Amino acid sequence: MDSSRPPDSTLDPRGPEPQVAPPVSAEDALAPELIASFAPGEARESRALRIAFIALGAALMVASLAAADVRGSSDEPKAAAESSGAMASHSKEAPSPAASALDDQIEAAIAPLLAPGVRLQRLTLGCKPPADAVLQGVAPGASSIQSRGVVVLFLAGNRTIACGATIDAQKQILVAAHDIDFGAPVSSADFSAQWVDAFMSAPGTTNSFPTGVPYNATTMIRAGQPLFQNSLARPIAVHPGDLVTVVVKNGAVTVRTQLLAQSQASVGDPATMINPASSSPVQVTVTGNKEAELVLQ
Q1: Is there a contact between 114 and 144 (Cβ–Cβ < 8 Å)?
Q2: Which of 40, 206, 260, 281 has its CA 20 to 30 A from that of 165?
Q3: In angstroms, how far is CA 283 from the centroid of its own chain?
């Protein structure tokens, strides 16, 4: 290599100069996607004016939406306050002393007409009696109330006003505390008391368990089901053909004998027996399993 050769002036040890992108106008930066839709020969001044109008429209739309949102949020507390104020004013309305006294009179007149064990919970009148109204009667002509609706009569001046009323009442019934199989012996411990609608419960339910003698279930009773009067029966203590021990009482004299049963019976029921010696029929009272009693007068 010839060291005497002068260096090439076109070579720069710093390397090539970086390429600088041409400046972008403000309108091109705002909406570049709109520039492509402009006509090729459209003047730059016209393009800038169109972009300015578009930007102004978008700004106005955003401002309008923000104002609507602020108004809506500020109206919600106002509406809630108005609603709560209306509810408060309604809750402040209380019956007058005269109206309360009239309600007490109506309830006192209804109570004797309800079935035993039924308790009155609420009475709702279907009309508003005048201020000078006095109670004239409840359920006229009825000796008892068997349904939810009744008629209440008021006397206001020289007018008689008939007003419909609705009664809410409850009664207590027995329900099974657990599943009970058919034919199983039962007692009061197998049931518990429960309050139900007095006018919607099925007829035939009972609120007390019979005492004195044992009982068996005549059907299967599921836990929670009500106890009906025909769901219990005294167990059969004597069957036809049984040899029954009979206690015969005649004053201070007591004699035991055995008689042949001709019919079936439960404890406490009468039964027909035959004296094997005389073949004569005898009526006795069953007192237990294959046991009976005969009291001579």
Answers
A1: yes
A2: 206
A3: 55
